[in-house]
Amino acid sequence: MLTCEVIDDPKAAVVALDPTRSRLLAELSEPASAAELANRLQIPRQKINYHLRALEGCGLVRPASVKKWGGLTERRLVATARGYVVSPEALGVAAINPERIVDRLSAGYLIALAGRAVREVGRLARQALAQDQRLATLSVDTEIRFRSAAERAAFSQELTQSIASLAARYHDESAPGGRSHRVIVLAHPLPHSLGDVPSPPYPSESRL
Q: Are 6 and 79 within one domain?
C-alpha cells in the first residue's frame, strides 16, 4: 500500500470526493469485505457494493483476497494508499498555474506553487513506482515564531541569500549526467488549531 496517492484523473477525483466513498477509503486502510463495512458503517450492503464498484473501477481500491464459502464468494478489498490528495491536473485548464500569477507575494501564488509540486511529484512518483525505483526528494518542515515584522523580514532576506548562495555553489548547467531539481521555500501563518483563522498581521502590515 502506498503512503500517498495523487489523484489526477477527473473521474477518480469525483468518485473519491463523495463523502461515503471517502469514508470507505479511510475504512479500507485494512482489508475488509462489503458485509463487514455494511455492519461497521450501518449502511445497506447493496449500497456498499455500489460504492465499492465505483472505487474499484477508478483504481482506488483493489482486491486483497478472495475466498469461497460453499456457493458464496467473499471478496476483501483494500485501499491502494493510506491517504489521497487531488492534483490540480484533475481540473484541466481550470487548474491554478503559478506562471499566470503576477503577485509573487500573494497567497494565491503560494497555493499555485504547492499545487504544482503535487502535480509534478505525483507524476514522478508513479513513474518511479512503475520502474520499481525510489524517488529522491527532500522535505523540511519547521515552525518559527517571529517577535516582530522586522525580524521576519530580516529572516526572509537571510534565507533568500542563503538559498541563492547554495544554488550558485552546487548548480552546474553542463554536468554530464546531472539532473535538474526544483527547490521551493514556502512560509505562511500557522493556525492555532484546525478551522481557526490565522492570527491578524503585525501592526501596519497587511500580508506576508
A: yes
The pTM (predicted TM-score) of the whole model is 0.80
Residues 6 and 54 in one domain: yes
Distance CA 64, CA 47 (A): 20
Q: For 139, which DSSP code? A: -
Amino acid in position 10? P
Summarize pLDDT for 95-122 with one digit per residue, the tens: 999 999 999 989 999 999 999 999 999 9
Residue range 122-156, pLDDT digits in tens: 999 999 999 999 998 999 999 999 999 999 999 99
Q: Which of 168, 131, 137, 108 is nearest to 4 (CA)?
A: 137
Q: Are residues 11 and 80 in the same domain?
A: yes
Number of domains in the chain: 3
What string of DSSP letters covers 72-130? Answer: EEEEEEEESEEEEEE-GGGGGGGS--GGG---TTSHHHHHHHHHHHHHHHHHHHHHHHH
CA dihedral 86, 91, 97, 101 (to 10 degrees): -110
